[in-house]
Structure to design on (424 residues):
């Protein structure tokens, strides 16, 4: 059995056999050495791999540099490096580090969520070896301004500069910086960016709140989140990640209609590993007992759209919200003294219907309101095995008089956002 554990003094000889022990020994005596991040892969009491992260200074903050990773020649290509790196990342997160940097093969490090360091404005030190791409991994969320050129432990810098420390003081080599930037661009494809979303992997939280209007996303980021950082501006479909009550959350516009919601939610679930999307939107009342400003939790979404045909199912499909989220949203609303209704909604492709009265047929089947995105969201969630919920405010009624003032719209919208954020 293989276990990843902290290196012990008795492992030193075995580690010596597989990697550059001289440098490790001098690092071991330095302040940059963190015993919890000097790890061995132990296979039935034999050391078959070694990994060392050391502390570096990035913009005044203590972060990490992957200093050594080695696997015994008899045990290569068996996933030992993966075990070591993942084990070290878990520990590093636990210890509260925000970033790890590594100099090496981009394709290899990408598997562990590393992206070109320039993505985070972390620059490769000029004396670093030309060894692939200088990569960085985001470990823990931070509001701190962590960027700049990592300052390495003296021992490490001495080793790579051959003791000629003046190299460190040499003027920054424009060519190297340019080269790293070009590479960063080339590596963009592998970093998670899609044609519609320029965010790098790791920039988007597990839960995304999606209003239709990207400016509403900006409003939420500015008024409800702390330390929000913008991750997308492609097509002005703004997206931000920040903290709400200390919990990490993202917010991004979905655009109007199922094709637009279909694209953005698909990419969030499938390219960015997002677990939960909560739509916060407006809807037109259908049933007589639905009133302006009512908040509706969409248990399910009927639709007149063709979106479902891609799944080639042998019958009609019922797009539904996540049960636990529905339940919790209803509970949160009750606790906050806000009346909500849970029920069926309709997602339509047609805002200006030539025969608006057809929508009365939805009402006759108990459908509460009509909007244009939920069914696509619920189908994408189901297809990806993820979670979704739509929370809607009634902004108009198709068959009753009246409209919300802009102040009422804002209050209604804020109520909905608070329910969504309390679900985190
Ligand atoms: N139709 C579709 N979507 C809507 C409506 C509507 O009347 N009102 C708010 N969203």
């Amino acid at each position: 059995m293989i276990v990843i554990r902290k290196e012990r003094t008795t492992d030193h000889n075995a580690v010596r056999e597989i990697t550059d022990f001289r440098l490790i020994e001098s690092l071991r005596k330095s302040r940059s050495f963190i015993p919890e991040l000097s790890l061995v892969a132990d296979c039935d009491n034999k050391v078959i791999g070694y990994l060392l992260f050391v502390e570096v200074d990035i913009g005044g903050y203590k972060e990490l540099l992957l200093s050594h990773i080695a696997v015994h020649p008899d045990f290569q290509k068996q996933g030992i490096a993966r075990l070591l790196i993942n084990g070290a990342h878990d520990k590093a997160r636990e210890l509260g580090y925000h970033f790890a940097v590594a100099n090496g093969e981009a394709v290899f490090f990408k598997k562990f969520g590393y992206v070109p360091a320039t993505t985070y404005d972390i620059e490769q030190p000029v004396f670093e070896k030309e060894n692939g791409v200088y990569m960085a991994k985001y470990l823990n969320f931070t509001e701190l301004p962590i960027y700049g050129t990592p300052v390495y432990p003296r021992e490490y810098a001495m080793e790579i500069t051959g003791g000629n420390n003046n190299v460190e003081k040499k003027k920054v080599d424009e060519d190297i910086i340019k080269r790293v930037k070009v590479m960063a661009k080339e590596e963009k494809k592998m970093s998670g960016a899609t044609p519609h979303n320029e965010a790098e992997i790791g920039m988007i939280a597990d839960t995304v709140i999606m209003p239709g209007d990207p400016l509403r996303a900006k409003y939420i980021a500015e008024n409800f989140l702390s330390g929000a950082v913008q991750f997308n501006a492609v097509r002005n479909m703004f997206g931000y990640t920040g903290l709400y009550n200390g919990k990490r959350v993202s917010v991004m516009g979905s655009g109007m209609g199922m094709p637009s919601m279909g694209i953005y939610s698909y990419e969030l679930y499938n390219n960015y590993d997002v677990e939960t999307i909560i739509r916060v939107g407006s809807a037109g009342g259908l049933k007589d007992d639905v009133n302006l400003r009512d908040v509706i939790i969409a248990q399910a979404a009927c639709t007149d759209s063709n979106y479902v045909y891609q799944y080639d199912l042998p019958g009609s499909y019922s797009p539904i919200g996540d049960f636990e989220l529905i339940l919790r949203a209803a509970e949160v609303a009750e606790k906050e003294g806000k009346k909500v209704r849970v029920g069926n909604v309709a997602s339509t492709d047609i805002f200006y219907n030539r025969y608006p009265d057809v929508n009365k047929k939805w009402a006759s089947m108990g459908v509460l309101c009509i909007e244009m995105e939920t069914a696509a969201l619920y189908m994408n969630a189901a297809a990806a095995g993820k979670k979704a919920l739509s929370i809607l405010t009634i902004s108009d009624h198709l068959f009753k008089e009246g409209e919300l003032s802009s102040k009422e719209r804002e209050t209604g919208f804020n109520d909905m956002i608070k329910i969504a954020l309390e679900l985190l």
User: Anything to note?
Assistant: The pocket of hypoxanthine is lined by residues 282-284, 348, 351, 370-372, 395-396, 398 (CB under 6 Å).
